[in-house]
Structures are given as structure tokens and as C-alpha cells.
UniProtKB/TrEMBL annotation:
The organism's taxonomic lineage, starting at the top: Eukaryota, Metazoa, Ecdysozoa, Arthropoda, Hexapoda
Gene: LOC115878447
Species the sequence originates in: Sitophilus oryzae
Name of the protein: Uncharacterized protein LOC115878447
Localization of this protein: Membrane
GO cellular component terms listed in the entry, alphabetical order: membrane
Record keywords: Membrane, Olfaction, Receptor, Sensory transduction, Transducer, Transmembrane, Transmembrane helix
Membrane topology: Multi-pass membrane protein
Length: 188
């Protein structure tokens, strides 16, 4: 995904700044054909990335694994608090820390992956907004608007049933786990 945003950013044909030397190229058919070709390449790459993201986001296996890990993190809280009395001193810290850290790190990676996906597609959209399209012919401008409209849609990774896979949801999940652990600890 980075390569698409970098491709758009570094493309000299799409980001041509106006000066006297380039004025003759802008009105030429050759320049307009090159712009059309570059727009087609960007559109094909964006559609390919959307198809990969769709496979990832709508995969039943992915959702099942993430949902299972989230449920494991929630269900392990009562288990830890009920067996706390079996361990002495340093053992309790090691057991609780290892289980909580393992669950939080794995869950964090899935939420971080979803956030990275959203950020990368947002970066593609922002790079497309910065393209110098003023000197293109109407056909290229129409293609640009189609690509811009398509890239404006937010790509969201869902984990579990209806939980968005981004850092905001991860923080909500962490607050819920902390609140549950705090409640169970005070009940003891």
C-alpha cells in the first residue's frame, strides 16, 4: 500500500508544476496520454489493494481467530482472580503478567494491523488530493474523479462480530478488560 502512495507522490507526470518549459507538454496529446496511462496504473493498483483488503477483512477465519482471542482475554479474568490464592508472592505476578501480556500483545497486533490498513488507504487518498490535475483534459479529469471517489471510501478491518479493528477499539477493549479485572479483584 505504501508503494501506491509513494508512486502517486513521486510521479512527475501527475505532479507536473507549471512553468514555461512544461507549457508545451501540457497542451500536447503525448502528455495527456501519459497522464491517462498513469491514472490507469493507479486505478488498477488501488482495485488490487481493495481486493486484498476485502479478502482480509471479510475472511471468516480471521474474524473467528480475533474473536476467539478477544473472548479468551475476557474469560481469563475470572480464571485468574479465582486461582490467585493458589500462588504465593512472586509466582502470582509472573502468572498474571504472562497471561495478560500474551493476550494484550496478540490482540494489540490485530488492532494495530487494522489501524495500519485504515491509515494507508487514508494516505493514498490524501496523495490523490495533492495531485496537480489542473492541466489535464476533461477525459483525464473524469477518470481522476472516479479514482478519487473510489479511494474516498474507508477501508475498515472488523475483528470479531462488529468491532472495528483500529486503535480506538483497542483502547475500549483495554478499558473493558481493566474494568472487569478491577471489579473481580474488588469482589474477592
Amino acid at each position: 500500500v505504501d508503494s501506491v502512495a509513494d508512486y502517486i507522490k513521486s510521479n512527475k507526470t501527475l505532479n507536473l508544476e507549471y512553468n514555461r518549459n512544461c507549457a508545451k507538454y501540457i497542451s500536447s496529446e503525448w502528455y495527456q496520454l501519459n497522464v491517462r496511462y498513469e491514472l490507469n496504473v493507479i486505478y488498477e493498483r488501488h482495485i488490487l489493494l481493495l481486493s486484498y483488503a476485502d479478502v482480509l477483512c471479510n475472511s471468516f477465519i480471521t474474524r473467528l481467530v480475533i474473536c476467539s482471542l478477544m473472548c479468551l482475554g475476557i474469560s481469563i479474568l475470572p480464571l485468574i482472580t479465582s486461582f490467585v490464592s493458589m500462588f504465593k508472592g512472586c509466582e502470582i505476578i509472573i502468572v498474571v503478567a504472562s497471561v495478560v501480556i500474551m493476550t494484550v500483545v496478540i490482540t494489540h497486533e490485530f488492532f494495530n494491523m487494522g489501524q495500519a490498513l485504515e491509515d494507508q488507504f487514508q494516505m493514498i487518498y490524501s496523495e490523490l488530493l495533492n495531485v496537480s490535475w489542473y492541466y489535464w483534459n476533461s477525459r483525464n479529469k473524469k477518470s481522476y474523479i472516479v479514482i478519487l471517489t473510489q479511494s474516498q471510501k474507508t477501508v475498515t478491518f472488523y475483528s470479531g462480530f462488529a468491532t472495528k479493528g483500529n486503535m480506538e477499539s483497542f483502547l475500549k477493549y483495554g478499558r473493558f478488560l481493566y474494568g472487569g479485572l478491577n471489579f473481580l479483584y474488588q469482589m474477592k
